[in-house]
């Protein structure tokens, strides 16, 4: 993926992510529950990322333990949602490619067999955890 396309996709993903977190916070205030998860809506089984938004919402209210128990991947997504906007602004403002090069290095690392297998196992364990707790 080219630099400008990556930065545009990241911008849209962050915009969607922040919008959905705000929507989730408002829905909790109104005591509504809604899940856009197509997998869960069709099968009734939680997907590996089910609970990430709820985990982030719990983090925003200072409930670290509850956030980790909801979905540990929420911590990673929350960190990305905090760091990437500033990284994007830095690169755009100073005409740098640091985020793009980090993306390329990450992409190369994910092609290493043992890294891919390890991450797949972590995601499968998280999925098992989501199903076990009945998300």
Written description of the protein model:
The chain is mostly helical. It has one domain. Helices cover 77% and strands 0% of the residues. It contains seven helices and no strands. The longest helix has 27 residues, at 3-29. It is globular. The model has no long low-confidence stretch (mean pLDDT 88).
Termini separation (Å)?
34 Å
Average per-residue pLDDT, rounded, comes to 88
Q: Count of DSSP helices? A: 7
Question: Which structural class matches the secondary elements?
Answer: mainly alpha
Q: Report the biggest beta sheet as strand number plus sense, adding barrel if it closes.
A: none
Question: How many strand segments?
Answer: 0
Give the oligomer, counting copies of the same chain as homo and different chains as hetero. single chain
The tally of domains stands at 1
- Based on CA atoms alone, the radius of gyration comes out at 17 Å
User: How big a fraction of the residues is strand?
Assistant: under 5%
- What form results from the Cα inertia axes? globular
Low-pLDDT segments:
none
Give the helix proportion (percent range). over 70%
Q: What string gives the helices and strands in order?
A: HHHHHHH
What keyword list fits this structure?
135 residues; mainly alpha; 7 helices; 0% strand; globular
């Amino acid at each position: 993926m080219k630099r400008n396309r990556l930065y545009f996709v990241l911008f849209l993903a962050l915009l969607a992510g922040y919008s959905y977190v705000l929507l989730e916070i408002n829905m909790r205030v109104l005591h509504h529950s809604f899940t856009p998860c197509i997998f869960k809506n069709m099968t009734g089984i939680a997907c590996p990322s089910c609970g990430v938004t709820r985990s982030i919402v719990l983090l925003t209210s200072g409930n670290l333990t509850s956030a980790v128990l909801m979905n540990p991947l929420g911590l990673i997504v929350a960190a990305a949602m905090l760091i990437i906007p500033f990284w994007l602004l830095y690169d755009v403002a100073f005409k740098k490619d640091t985020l793009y090069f980090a993306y390329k290095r990450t992409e190369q690392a994910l092609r290493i067999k043992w890294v891919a297998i390890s991450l797949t196992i972590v995601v499968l364990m998280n999925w098992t955890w989501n199903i076990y707790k009945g998300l």
